[in-house]
Amino acid sequence: MGALILMFIYLQQTSPDYCPPRPPPPIQQETKKCMPCETNSTPTCPVPTPVPTPVPTPPPQREKPIVLLWFWPENFRFQLSECKTLFNIESCNLTDDRSVYPKADAVLIYHKSIARDLSNLPPSPRPPFQKWVWFHLESPTNTRKIPGLENLFNLTLSYRKDADISVRYYLKVKKNPGEEFVIPKKDKLVCWIVSNNNPGTGTGVRYKFYQEFIKHIKVDLFGKLSGKFLRHEDYYSTIASCKFYLSFENSIHRDYITEKLNGPLSVGTVPVVLGPPRKNYEDFFPSDAFIHVNDFPNAEALAKYLLQLDKDEAAYRKYFQWRNYLTAEPHLLSTQEFVLPICSACEHINSHREYKVAHEIYNWYFS
Ligand SMILES: *[C@@H]1O[C@H](CO)[C@@H](O)[C@H](O)[C@H]1NC(C)=O
Ligand SMILES: *[C@@H]1O[C@H](CO)[C@@H](O)[C@H](O)[C@H]1NC(C)=O
User: Fold this and answer.
1) In terms of DSSP bridges, do strands 155-158 and 270-274 run parallel, antiparallel, or are they unpaired?
2) How far is the CA of 355 from the centre of ligand 2 (A)?
3) I need a surface site. Which of 22, 187, 250, 307 has the fewest CB within 10 A?
């Protein structure tokens, strides 16, 4: 009796349908429940056909490329995992460990760190699958033309729109347009944060303009040039407190439109730009998001216009209309300034596996 009960329990647990035993279904095949079997009738359990079911091929697991950062730009180190935390980029295996060089799919080489005699470049021969990335964010005016680099690289990383990896903070399209932008409180008219005034870096043009400009309007100056040093924590709040901000580039080149413009845009201040022609700015920013110095015959006319806007709230507000459908995000400051370029390279290397050569980089860059 005990044995019978045990067997009953066993049957209940193993074959609740009381069907004749059948071979186990092939893996992946849907297991159908059998109909209860009636005596004198053939079992209704489907007899699995021995046809091999196609095993669905899993999506190809591409290995993440290894991207080696050869130099830390300006020695500004950061946790390479920040690509994930800050930009949600984790498409490569990013490392600064030079011992993985023979396996690296790409090597990022920061131009300003390259020795004039090229002695600190990665060793030769280069693994045949490996791509070298020319990593450079300065304008041509501030670029040392180190001989021997012309035909070494596979990819360019630059602010230039036509670089292989083009890096800048783009305006983003708003998902839910409509909510009105609140202009922050202003207690200053025009501000400028500037440290570099070395004419050797191309700053002559902007400084000359500035000197003429301040004859006609008050400018609150911050940074090394003024002796009023600004802490990074105060960068955005200071810019936000000014109606206008001088986004003057140090030198004038195509596409050389830097975070000097992104800063005021991201906090709600109207940028006054000096740099490439207005048309070039309009490749990246709506025409009514900024005031261009070239829109005026001279510095005095610009000053007069700003003073007029200061008294005409409605006209000033027009410079905020684009914010109904676009938004500017703050950029990372100082020691984090290379995080975005490096993470962008990681993303690009993963999605571009094709063969590539960057010929004559200087011909391209200085054109
Ligand atoms: C990254 O590459 C290194 C060197 O080949 C390897 O040891 C490590 O496991 C890789 N990490 C990932 C997450 O793929
Ligand atoms: C990278 O560029 C070098 C130099 O131009 C070239 O010799 C090499 O074949 C390129 N390699 C790849 C993987 O694109």
Assistant:
1) unpaired
2) 7
3) 187
Tell me which of 126, 357, 360, 364 to substitute to probe ligand 2's pocket, judged by most ligand atoms within 8 Å of the beta carbon: 357
Paired with 154 in beta bridges are none
Interval between CA 90 and ligand 1 midpoint (Å): 13
Residue 308: other Cβ atoms inside 10 A: 11
**Domain 172-330, CATH number (from 3.40.190.10, 3.40.50.11660, 3.30.450.180, 3.40.50.150):** 3.40.50.11660
Ligand with smallest separation from the Cα of 90: 1
pLDDT digits (tens, 9 = 90+) for 188-215: 999 999 988 888 888 988 999 999 999 9
Burial track 187-212 (b if 16+ CB lie within 10 A, e otherwise): ebbbbbbbeeeeeeebbebbbebbee
| Residue whose CA lies nearest to ligand 1 atom number 10 | 93
Structure tokens at 344: 């962008």
Cα separation of 326 and 344, whole Å? 22
Query: pTM higher than 0.85, yes or no?
Result: no
Which residues contact ligand 2 via a Cβ below 6 A?
Answer: 129, 131, 151-152, 154, 355-357
From the CA of 347, how far away is ligand 2's center (Å)?
A: 19
Residue-range domain boundaries for the chain: 66-167+336-365, 172-330
Q: Which atom of ligand 2 is nearest to the CA of 129?
A: 13
pLDDT the model gives residue 249? 95
Residues known to be catalytic: 138
Quote the CA–CA distance of 26 and 17 in Å, as a whole number. Answer: 19
CB within 8 A of 283, min separation 6: which ones? 161, 255
Residues of the chain whose pLDDT is less than 70? 1-54, 56, 58-61, 177
